[in-house]
Amino acid sequence: MISAGIGGELFVRGTIGLAGLARISPGIIAATIAAFATSSPELSVAINSALAGKPQISLGDALGSNIVNIALILGLALTISQIQSTRDSIKRDFPIALLIPITTGILFLDGELSRVDGLFMLILFVAWLGAVATEANKQRSFTEAVIGEHKLWRVAFSCVTGLTFLIAAGNLIVFGAREIAVSFGINEFIIGATIVAIGTSIPELATTIISKLRGHDEVGLGAILGSNVFNGLFIIAIAAIIHPIKVPWQDIAITLAFGIAAIIVVYPSRDGLIQRGRGILLLATYAAYVITISKVSTV
Asked: Does residue 64 form part of some domain?
């Protein structure tokens, strides 16, 4: 987890610096480049676990990480102070974040996420990415200063070094998770949705808290929402395409239900304001999720 945190910090700073040179606004940077950077551990977990014939770990990790991102990380950020979301984020990112667990649940009604299902999710991801790219073109002339390195060689160094740490962390997390699952007789999905999810969400935690403390709410919120889209559509799709995922409906129902609940709790009002009090509700939601999923793992 330390490796993931270091790698995420370096990679985020490098990619944000690169985007700054390209004159892309902070919110768009966070929802795309920073989100991809902080989701790199989940991607590494997905590829490694799918190739190892254990795609259930990657599914649990992706869905569990989305709950960690919203209920735990965003909950902690909101306890510091309220967050103001942008109108574009409300129209583009929040609806897709709510749609992801609903779509996943529908696709899993037959107990399997096939390669065809994975391709369908990948198409949805590309459509969302296209909408973000269109918005980025509109906002280029309004670029503002962003946290990060702006010298090209420093940007490249941060990206490469950070990505190396993230890939290494992903390999270690998958190995450790499989060992835990075997030792305690806990199924791979539950391990992915709890221990692995927290481990791979360390970069999102660092990015969100740091951006919050530095007064860049749009960076932290964008990274969280963008990361959820990457996890829920791109990463799960890649894992399913490599190896179809078979998980009983009851095993993922709890995670999907809490994922929907967390998004509903944090969904902003019309003016885009997410009140500080919702942070407590989100943390309570995460606590309830951990208690519920732990009981399932002991059954």
From this structure: yes
